[in-house]
Design a protein that fits this description.
The complex is a heterodimer of chains A (358) and B (533). Chain A is built from 9 helices and 19 strands. Chain A is of the alpha/beta class. Chain A starts with 13 loop residues before the first helix and ends in a 10-residue tail after the last helix. In chain B, helix 1 crosses helix 9 and helix 2 crosses helix 10. Classes of the chains: A alpha/beta (358), B alpha+beta (533). The complex binds zinc ion (2 copies). The site of one zinc ion has 6 residues of chain A, from loops.
Chain lengths: 358, 533
């Protein structure tokens, strides 16, 4: 169902609803920022990834489902307010509500309405099914702000169950060859989705410390995940062959890995769609699992929400904006960073702070 | 085709040699002989040439994907590999029926050649509609002729030998030269009866390993275990005389016909059942070797005119005898083969055929002194060959060593950078270097290799932060970084702005200690030019 934007006679200019500042997206009428890049007083955050929920703000407003994750990751002296999906809060006459973005647990599109003008900041989002979070919902708007992490036609995701089948086949083959499977995914969001894709009948599942914290927050929120054991809590010298270990990519090639004996390693990331990115990491396998929109979903989302104006950020912004311009839309790039820099940072360095784009 | 696509994926997803050999051996065990022959053909680096112009492929893929050309180009830029971009950009198709590799190659791909544009476009659309991404990647690689999957011909040879249970040498020999992939060919390839020789077939070449210049030859053994020859800079080749016919093969396993008429004429003097290994060199009638630049005038010419024949005569310097009286001598010790080579040359006298000189010496010290004079002889250094070694095809390391003279080195400034391909598609890895001519920097060499991964990333960062200008894929950067470059040779060139062409330039080290103004002058490079080059 599409929530419709009412169109009364008097409308407010777009700048009152949202504008681009060097601290991030700013709603002047409501005096708050959406996913600010620096500490501010009032932050509305789309989700708990650190490139969106920055440390050090005084107050955070976020979707209810992200409560456990945000409290785990943010400064203790911060004030939090949480709002269920679909409920509206009014801030200085500006109506604010959260709608599922399908990116990870608690991820939300922020709908901001001021005097009949509606802006939707999508944050990170995907349209594919994901049992660990609520499904993306289209929200009609005048202004849509979309990410473009995988905004090239080379990125097309397979259905979730197909990829899950590939991962489980790999795990099973490793088990049969007496190897331990180590699957890398980002600590929060990706790892938990991977756990939900695994078939626990194949063998025991273990987690890296950074992953385990996120798992606890997911379980506390009520997301069903298969049983896992934290590697650090395992006593003695167990037989790891046949086990699945879900770890963060930065663990690759560290002494921490030695305990597992014979391993096969794999990375789960949207970047794995391209062989070069796969091979650069010296992994045995790469699985294409992404929590961002692929090319067809991006087009579908924009056409469904049908905004008058499209702002593009977070990735292949220039490419995506140019594409939609060629389709007759008013599309604008709102980040100064060039496409290739973004892509390279996120795809070649695991220390990138854009942790979620893996 | 699925089996072959799976093999590609298996080879592509491991860097371990043994895993690659095992994957190939499994494939050869399971595949029908005709598929196995085609797989061998492609894995060994052969291509189907000119099936579809890549410009058209790009246009049609963009049309299938519903995108404009610029967006295809952006995609290509991100992927760094045309076949892969073609595979990814077009929405995935569905493979309804799995046809064999042979069917694909012979019925679907080779039939593309020379077709009308419209028919070609329709055929490509059908191929895209019938292929999943994984299978399509392989097919696009076959069509674009860029089928490389990190296996060498040697590795393929090993896999086939392992699977068939016959010696690697036999398989390597049978894979030499020209052959057409067919079931019959593959059956012959794995035939356990190993007493075969085809009349034109050369032997796999014995390759030399480089001696670490810093460590010196002491690291490979005692001087009295070796003989020394000049390391010539020419065209390595085998001259075959069998059943009244002559064949000259290059090390790249190309049959060189009509290119070296003097050597062909000379080969007629050889008795039947003779195979020589040696080097084709530009040389005067008295035997003195001319610089490589002279030989280069004849390289690449399919036929040679009278004038050129007169100006640049060539001589085949034989240094090994692989077959005599139709008998394979490769397992005999080097000194024995040399003895028989000399005996053969007592009977054969032709100005364009000679044995290479053995350089007298009793100690490394003596040879080190001789080696200093290499450049004056137009040699690259010395070859050291173990006296008792068989003619070896890479199983044991250390039969032949090349002890080159220290390369030329010069400090230059990095001025342009471009992204690499394949594995390094997203990093700036290809650099252009310049030297000072007064107060301007003149580009003179491109270098791709020599830095480690960490340094490459640092240069990459530098390029991104210091780009002054970009023209297409090339970025011009603020002249800041100084690197020491080494190269094997120099020659004058009118095609280069600097007036000089370098051979095999590479980066020796990053000179963090030098500022751009400390880099060398172009005039200093010109001083390194050999007198007569
Ligand atoms: Zn993000
Ligand atoms: Zn995110």
């Amino acid at each position: 169902m599409i929530a419709d934007a009412a169109k009364p006679a008097t409308t407010s200019p777009l700048e009152d609803v949202l504008s681009v500042t060097d601290r991030g997206l700013y709603c002047a009428a409501g005096d708050f920022y959406v996913d600010p890049q620096r500490p501010v007083d009032h932050a509305v955050v789309t989700h708990a990834h650190t490139d969106h929920a920055r440390w050090g703000c005084r107050r955070y407003l976020a979707a209810s489902d992200s409560e456990h994750l945000l409290r785990m990751r943010m400064n203790k002296d911060a004030e939090f307010q949480f709002l269920p999906y679909g409920e509206t809060i009014t801030i200085r006459g500006v109506r604010v509500s959260f709608h599922p973005a399908g990116h990870m647990l608690g991820s939300a599109q922020v709908r901001i309405e001021h005097r009949g003008r509606v802006a939707v900041a999508m944050g990170d989002y995907k349209l594919d099914a994901d049992p660990t979070c609520a499904d993306w919902e289209p929200v009609r708007c005048h202004l849509m702000i979309t990410e473009s992490t995988f905004g090239l036609p080379i990125y097309r995701w397979k259905p979730n169950d197909v990829t899950a089948g590939e991962i489980n086949d790999w795990w099973r083959a490793n088990r049969d060859a007496g190897r331990c499977s180590v699957l890398y995914g980002y600590a929060v969001g990706k790892s938990q989705r991977l756990l939900a894709m695994l078939d626990p009948a194949i063998g025991p599942i273990f987690t890296h410390g950074a992953v385990e914290k996120g798992v606890a927050a997911y379980r506390d929120t009520g997301v069903g995940l298969p049983p896992t054991r934290y590697v650090g809590a395992v006593e003695g010298k167990p037989d790891w062959s046949g086990a699945m270990v879900v770890a963060v990519p930065s663990a690759h090639g560290t002494p921490w890995m030695r305990r597992f004996g014979k391993v096969s390693t794999a990375m789960a990331s949207g970047w794995m769609a391209v062989r070069g990115a796969r091979r650069r990491r010296a992994l045995d396998r790469g699985f294409v699992v992404s929590d961002h929109v692929d090319w067809p979903s991006l087009i579908e989302a924009v056409n469904t929400c049908d905004p008058e104006t499209l702002w593009v950020t977070h990735g292949y912004s220039a490419v995506v904006a140019r594409y939609f311009q060629s389709q007759g839309r008013h599309a604008v790039v709102i980040d100064g960073r060039s496409r290739s820099e973004e892509e390279d940072e996120a795809s070649s360095s695991s220390s990138s702070d854009r942790e979620d784009s893996e | 085709m699925k089996r072959f696509a799976d093999l590609f994926t298996a080879l592509d997803s491991t860097t371990k040699t043994n895993a690659k050999v095992a994957a190939m051996a499994d494939y050869f065990a399971a595949a029908p002989a005709d598929d196995a022959a085609w797989a061998t053909y492609f894995l060994a680096g052969n291509k189907l040439r000119r099936l579809v112009p890549s410009k058209l492929l790009r246009q049609w893929a963009a049309a299938e994907a519903g995108i404009e050309d610029w967006l295809f180009d952006e995609s290509y830029h991100a992927v760094g590999d045309l076949a892969e971009t073609l595979a990814l950009v077009v929405p995935p198709g569905e493979s309804r029926q799995d046809q064999s590799l042979t069917h694909w190659v012979q019925q679907r791909l080779m039939t593309l050649r020379g077709r009308e544009e419209l028919a070609l476009q329709r055929a490509m659309a059908e191929i895209w509609a019938e292929t999943t991404v994984e299978m399509r990647l392989v097919i696009m690689k076959l069509i674009t002729g860029a089928f490389r999957v990190g296996v060498s011909k040697r590795l393929v040879t090993r896999a086939i030998a392992q699977q068939a249970g016959i010696p690697t040498d036999v398989v390597a020999h049978r894979l030499m030269g020209d052959w057409k992939p067919s079931a019959a060919f593959f059956q012959r390839l794995v035939d356990p009866d190993t007493l075969d020789t085809q009349v034109s077939q050369p032997y796999p070449f014995c390759l030399a390993h480089p001696i670490d210049i810093e460590k010196g030859p002491e690291s490979v053994g005692e001087a009295n275990e070796f003989v020394a020859e000049w390391k010539w800079d020419g065209i390595r080749g085998q001259v075959i005389r069998r059943q009244g016919q002559s064949f000259i093969w290059s090390r790249g396993e190309e049959l060189m016909e009509n290119r070296w008429p003097e050597v062909e004429a000379a080969a007629e003097q050889l008795p039947d059942g003779t195979v020589l290994d040696g080097e084709i060199l530009a040389a005067n009638a008295d035997g003195t070797v001319l610089p490589f630049a002279q030989l280069q005038r004849r390289i690449g010419r399919k036929t040679v005119g009278k004038k050129l024949l007169r100006e640049v005569p060539v001589v085949f310097h034989a240094f090994d005898l692989l077959e005599a009286d139709g008998q394979d001598l490769r397992l005999q010790p080097l000194v024995e083969r040399r003895r028989r080579l000399e005996r053969l040359f007592e009977q054969v006298d032709h100005p364009h055929l000679r044995t290479t000189e053995l350089i007298r010496g009793e100690s490394w010290q003596q040879w080190a002194e001789v080696r200093e004079g290499s450049r004056a002889q137009h040699a690259e250094g010395l070859m050291l060959k173990r006296r008792d070694s068989p003619y070896d095809v890479g199983r044991v390391r250390g039969s032949w060593w090349k002890w080159k003279v220290a390369p030329y080195t010069i400090d230059a400034v990095l001025i342009y950078a471009q992204k690499g391909h394949g594995r390094r598609a997203s990093l700036f890895t290809d650099y252009t270097f310049a030297l000072w001519d007064g107060d301007t920097l003149v580009p003179f060499a491109k270098a791709y290799s020599g830095l480690d991964d960490k340094e490459i990333r640092r240069v990459d960062q530098f390029v991104r932060r210091n780009t002054k200008d970009s023209f297409g894929p090339v970025r011009s950067v603020t002249p800041t970084l100084v690197m020491e470059l080494a190269f094997e040779g120099l020659q004058r060139s009118t095609r280069h702005k600097s007036g000089i062409a370098t051979r095999f330039p590479r980066i020796v080290r990053w000179r963090h200690d030098k500022r751009p103004q400390d880099a060398n002058q172009l005039s200093e490079l010109l001083q390194l030019l050999p007198e007569d080059a």
